[in-house]
Amino acid sequence: MALIDVVVSDIVQETSTVKTFYFARPDGTPVGRYSPGAHIDVVGPTSLTRQYSLCSRPDDGDTFAVAVKREENSRGGSVALHELAVGDILQISEPRNVLAIADSATHHVLVAAGIGITPMLSMARYMDVHGISFELHYFSRTEEDAAFLPLLRDRCPEKLFTHLGVDREQQESLLVTALEKAPSDTHVYVCGPEGFMDKAISVAERFVAEAAVHFESFHAAAQADAVQNDSFEVELDGEIYEIPADKSIVEVLDENGVEIDTSCQEGICGTCTMTVLAGVPEHRDNVLTKAEKEAGELIAVCVSRCAGKHLVLDYY
Ligand code: FES
What we know:
This protein is an alpha/beta fold.
């Protein structure tokens, strides 16, 4: 994936652990607009690549902004980013979107917990400005931990439902209350910690079709041990590639000179998604929706495998 150089043009401390970083082109030209809900890869000071949702105004175009929560127990990506200073240069990818606003929906329910607010912020900003019907349910431990709460309260107070310090049972009943009165053709969008997302998605699917539930996860799905994998073969452009138990499809294609765009390599960003022309994928990603997985027409080739012995793939 092509990367572009950007300069850190501003840094805002949102909460005790969350900073917003603004990225501009070094020559001052606009970075461009993006579709609400999109994310970018950020190659940090330690050369780690991480995905962050864009939270600047999608229609702005001058700068991109990402909000990063400092995670002391992470593999170092967020800690290193928190050391950035205005004027530092780093690299980012073009925006990609796995959480796009559904054009067909008559109403949109955004559900965010913690730092999961970031994609929802760009979506809320866009829908508010463009007169699109939505409501935002924002779960946070405390008011002080809730990044962008003052901004949201200022811009769209009547669309914002803030749920502070509620326990797990309360979370479920609040979501049920929100969704049982949602009009038909409502779409639901979820982002937050893994356990919260599982619960929110399962509640949402009680009220709207699976295909109307959208989510963005920044957590890799738990993977089976390599020893439990089976080998299989992949056919691409008439060539057959043997995928052994200890290698991914992407690794084998790469070894054979077939370039597939990748980013996270963990099944969470969607960059490596390919089309399945024949065969049954064994999905191990956290990026395709349940409906997409059941349809079996797409596969994230960095982590997913074959439920049988033969997959025929094409570029997405
Ligand atoms: S590279 Fe990110 S999902 Fe495969």
